[in-house]
Write a structure and sequence with these properties.
Length: 134
């Protein structure tokens, strides 16, 4: 028999005030894990959530972005990264790794971006008259 605990309950029992990074890879049960951590998510006590979303049919259970985002977007988390590991033509198990961050982290990233918008050759044009100059 396997005993399961919701992350909210476990974190409260162990007096864990904050989770910096939560990595979820549970073969299609990511929405259930997120639901079990909903109080921590709602209170922004988790900074970064990385998870795998299985879109293919290689596993008995697959999920959609909506299955995850219906909880995360409502609580102010934003998608900041997507990495794919497979391709839909070659594999029946198409999956992506995604990273969501809370608003506080997102705003820090935005601030860093704005501060670095003048990095020559990377983020800002150096010659306003030449649209191809970066």
């Amino acid at each position: 028999m396997v005993h399961l605990h919701k992350l909210d309950s476990f974190a409260n029992e162990k007096n864990i005030p904050r989770i910096n990074v939560l990595k979820i890879d549970v073969q299609g049960s990511e929405p259930e894990v997120i639901e079990g951590a909903y109080n921590y998510i709602k209170k922004k006590k988790i900074d970064i959530i990385e998870l795998e979303i299985i879109l293919g049919f290689g596993y008995s259970k697959s999920i959609s972005f909506y299955d995850v985002e219906k909880y995360l977007f409502k609580c102010g988390y934003k998608l900041i990264a997507i990495n794919h590991d497979s391709n839909v033509i070659s594999y029946s198990n198409y999956q992506v790794d995604v990273i969501y961050v809370n608003n506080f982290i997102f705003n820090k990233i935005k601030k860093i971006h704005k501060e670095n918008t003048t990095i020559e050759g990377i983020t800002k044009k150096t010659d306003k008259n030449n649209p191809y100059s970066y």
